[in-house]
Amino acid sequence: MEKGLRELVSDFKGDVGVYVYNLTTNTVAAINADTIFPTASIVKVPILIGVFDKIHKGALSLNDTLVYDDKRAYGGAGLMQFYKDSTVTDLRTLISLMITMSDNTTSLWCQELAGGGETINALMANLGLKHTRVNSRTEGRTKDWDKYGWGQTTPKEMAFLLTKIRNRKMINAASSDEMYRVMSNSFYTDYSLSQIPPYIQTAAKQGMVNTSRSELVMVNAPTGDYVFYIGTKNNKDASWGFDNEAWQLQRKISAYLWNYFNPTSDWKPAEKFQDLVRDLRY
Q: The Beta-lactamase class A catalytic domain covers which part of the protein (predicted)?
């Protein structure tokens, strides 16, 4: 498996890290899996964990009523930036938008509710993670923010977080189940998820800025669950079209892994399918 992955990434114009773990067979493949990559919006997974840690401790509730202030509006991905001032919402909505739509406004709000980057980073450290950190709006991490942006991680560490959630061991079983449920409704299906049958449950989070495109995915495959993280940085191709080189790589790796772990499946990702997806989106 690792040999095949190395062939796929060999011509990529940028830096790549990949970590794959099959939860049933304990199969592992790793390429630069301990290298630090920018998270972009994948930092919202540690933020999610931070919010649920507060819920578990009784400081927050999913049904907490919140009032949107248009001063919170933050551009980029998401819907809440377009809400009317003083709109009544709740924490469940913030969490859903943060993960499903990668909403930046709700993510920064959730980061605040979780106690800020400092609290989330302490939680990551307590989990034994050395490199997964929130940098934005976090005291003492200006240099890290300059280098990596909102957050940073390694392929192995981020895959560890999602594996722990899937195994119902992140905070507690109920918290893990709810986090996994919300991560199973990603809006962004053009990338790795396009290579997995639509009737197979996945949990995922994507992160993207101009020169870094990354993705975290857990696949609940018939032959056994597997998780993978694809991190990229210093990408030469900073375009935002369907055929961006990093997004092509994510689709290729996802298709390779599906076929590797499910060789007898009737559903086979193919180049023709890429054309169909492209036609639907563009």
A: 17-232
Question: pLDDT value at position 267?
Answer: 85
What is the rounded CA–CA span in Å between residue 181 and residue 124?
Answer: 21
Q: Domain map of the chain by residue range? A: 1-35+155-160+186-282, 39-153
Q: Can you tell me the distance from the alpha carbon of 45 to that of 138, in angstroms, rounded to the nearest whole number?
A: 16
What kind of architecture, by CATH, is found in domain 39-153? 3-Layer(aba) Sandwich (3.40)
Rounded (5°) CA angle 277-188-202? 95
What confidence tens digit (pLDDT) does each residue in 117-141 have?
Answer: 999 999 999 999 999 999 999 999 9
The neighbour count for residue 3, using CB atoms within 10 Å, is: 7
Query: Cα separation of 200 and 188, whole Å?
Result: 16
Give dist(CA 241, CA 71) in Å, integer. Answer: 31
* Phi and psi at residue 190, to the nearest 5°: -75, -15
Longest dimension (CA), the chain: 55
Q: Alpha-carbon distance 162 to 19, whole Å? A: 12
Domain 1-35+155-160+186-282 identical in fold to domain 39-153: yes
Whole-Å CA distances, 82 to 29, 79, 154: 42, 6, 33
Fold of 1-35+155-160+186-282: Beta-lactamase (3.40.710)
Cα(132)–Cα(130) distance, integer angstroms = 6
2-53 pLDDT, tens per residue?
999 999 999 999 999 999 999 999 999 999 999 999 999 999 999 999 999 9
